[in-house]
Amino acid sequence: MDYIKAFVIGGAVCVLVQILMDKTKLLPGRIMVILVCIGAVLGAIGIYEPFLEFAGCGASVPLSGFGYNLWKGIKEAVDQDGFIGLFRGGFKMAAVGTSAALIFSYLASLIFKPKMVK
Fold it and tell me: Model's pTM, two decimal places?
């Protein structure tokens, strides 16, 4: 049942983003920034944590989950280190996921030989 919830909720997030892309003139980069900011704001007001517990990977995999992850790292670092935590917390919390994405995309580029699109 967890897989079905994650699939449905993650798919619903993707559908909403696709509708936003089709019905507005927003560029994909701006939509990605909006998703990250939404995740951080919902985390700050306490809504994203229950949503994450309910939806599992359906809430943690989209970019809104990345925004929540950044906010959570900054909050923990500020509680522990004070003001300097504003600058360290996000990097510390998101380092593993970002590093994994870079490493695996590099390995995929070695295996599949991507072509440059003009």
Answer: 0.74
